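Both lines are quoted verbatim for reference:

——
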Amino acid sequence: MLPYFLGCPSWNEPAWRGGLYPAGSASRDFLAAYCRVFNTVEGNTTFYARPAVTTLARWAQTMPEGFRFCAKLPRDISHEGDLRASLAAAGDFLELLAPLGARVAPLWLQLPASFGPPRLAELAAFIDGLAAPHGLAVEVRHPAFFARGDEEKALNRLLLERGVERIGLDSRALFSCTERSPAVLHAQSKKPRVPPRPAAFTHQPQVRFIGHPDLAANDAFLAPWLDKVAAWIEEGRAPHVYLHTPDNHRAPELARRFHAQLMARLPGLPALAESSSGEQLGLL
């Protein structure tokens, strides 16, 4: 069993057939195959649409008990209007996710770049009113929260005092890419260009690494995270690490690369299980 959580932005990726998934596998089998290798996934799907009750029941039946599904609060809650006005909707969303139990640990709140320091009291009230049963993690994108000034300190203090994690987003590798492919350009247009902020306000630090399409080009950017994640594990924390590539076609390979390099820092770390296609994901 891994002492940390490693995964990708989603599991429903047809391009992974023949790699993570057997060639010709049906999409309904993707989740089970994914869970045989990785122990967490970003719940991006819930940001765009609430899953049906039958879908959640199927996920709960397929995901192992120790699996982590970091569901994002829907964008109509996080991106539209005052957060306090959405507390009832957020509570309803948590009730909808109840079949997943402790797998939703932590719940994610991704805030837009327009959400700045004047709204910190609103954020505090939302956190206090929500009381996510298995923890909450927040991703901010406003430049003031990355300026190392009083406004960033106020944010960090607010989260730390409430036992809420600050998601560490690192998009440097993506923006170092000069390739002009549609996938890269699309990813660069969607992802924020902010400096990384490694934080460990709780037992479960959160890292989102947005990578370069050339896997080797990520190594220099991954190195500090490898040191940080290794240190967190040695402290007894259970970090979550999510690896992206521009179109996510190579996200499992990047996750494999990260884990293999982490094994070099932590020699007792077990290898990942083989993928359903027979690919050994613990090796480079």
